[in-house]
Amino acid sequence: MRWLKVPSVSAATLRLYTTLHTWTGLCAGLALFVAFYAGAITVFQDDVAIWQNAANRGSQMETPADGQRLIEKVIAAHPDAKARLSLQLPEETGAHYVAWWFDTAKNDWQNATLAHLEGSAKPSSDLTIFINAIHYSLGIPVGGIYFMGVVSVLYGLALVSGLLIHLPRLAKDLLALRAGKNLKRLWQDAHNLIGVISLPFHMIFAITGATLCLYGTILMGFNALAYDGQLMGKMNNALDVVSGTPAAGKPAAMLPLPEILARTKAQQPDFDATALSLFNYGDANAEAAVHGNSERSLAPYGNIGVHLVDGRITNTQIAGDRDINHATMSGAYSMHFGTFGHYAVKWLYFVLGLMGAFLFYSGNLLWIESRRKHRAAEQGRAPYHMAQATVGVCLGTCMGISGAFVGAQLGAALGLDVPMFERLVCYTLFFVALGVSFWLPPIVAATRLLIATAVVTWCVPLANGVLTGDQMLLTPWRGQWQVFGVDAVATLLGAGFLYLAYLVKQRQRNGQPNSVWAMQAAPPRRAVAANTA
User: Fold this and answer.
1) Cα radius of gyration rounded to whole Å, the chain
2) Whose CB has fewer CB within 10 Å in the chain, the N or C terminal residue?
3) In the 8-state DSSP scheme, what is residue 59?
4) Is-contact 493 436, C-beta < 8 A?
């Protein structure tokens, strides 16, 4: 790589970049591990939704005529729903149309299908919602999304500073993976290689993650500083595809759902509707916003406005025919979640998500190893506790998410509140793992938690096969490839965790004795206490 000319960097500047990279990485690393591991799974959220909803597997796909019947029945049973009624199409739910509306009496959102018209506050597929919440807010209900926005900013700083640190050695050491007795150098090489190769994607994740998480905060700032409190009204006009005209109070015949979908398809043949929002249904001013995706587009999400009386297209915000606001928002979302392609892109993002989780995990290990006392059995308190936290948070996350999958199937089989039960299982496993990591020496905790994580992860296909009858040996023959894919990935991940447990056990037996990963029975004492004694 002689063609790569890198400008020289002074030692003081390099130390500044190194300090910035180290502390931004440490401050954000554990949160980013959680976000990347959960985000890798969120890429396959449609497949996970089908895996969770066992009742929909093999069900006959409902038609637009069924969707029209659902609209009419929900409106008849819940007249307040005509103000705004949302409809998810079978492509999003697996087999059935699902209607959503806000019930003012219950002060909560309700959903219904043709089989269950009475309404329920429980979502039809909660597991994907829960895992995505872990991804963008760590599962913290209040303030979590803003916290992750700040973490994303730190993440961007760590990426830029890391690149500047290794830029002088980039041409020489980029593809170096120097295995040997010096494990720190091997971890450093792997950390650098993954970071540099996946840098473009990580920059995308950092920028779009910060934008999506801090979107509301940014708007509030602009609203106060530049728009004199008028931004929200302007935002609605800029981003909606419906006019928001109040109901006229005059009943009118509505365009049926099959015709609505046909007219939007005629507007752009590549546009596939996934959901609708109906406003003032049954009124002369009724409108619909049809949401969907456009094939062969980097920013596939789009919306089409339709007048429900005469069927005319009132607004179009789809690929190739939209303004910069819609294009930017759609592009940010699709590039962050990898929804601009089919399974090849999804698998790429899945691998990148796992590699990103490894990047932050290895960064913590490098910090711990850099502070190792080579000639003293007793190590510093900070590296020791960082090792405990790294083991507990990382393996607790992996085990907790696997437990949520098992809890989703088990809760449904036992007739429990599935969303509540899967959260209970997930958080219980996470905090148990965290407790174990601070109770046992880090190397022992890591080995046992890796074995436990492998077992819980293997319980994902086991629970699905036992509780639904859709075993891995049968689902491919039935054409249930999404179900098979989830079970197969869980099986492979379980094997991976068990292999890591073997490697950690080998480290315990044959590794350097003077390390936080050695068999220490208790955390090191404070230097002051030792001197006093």
Assistant:
1) 26
2) C
3) P
4) no
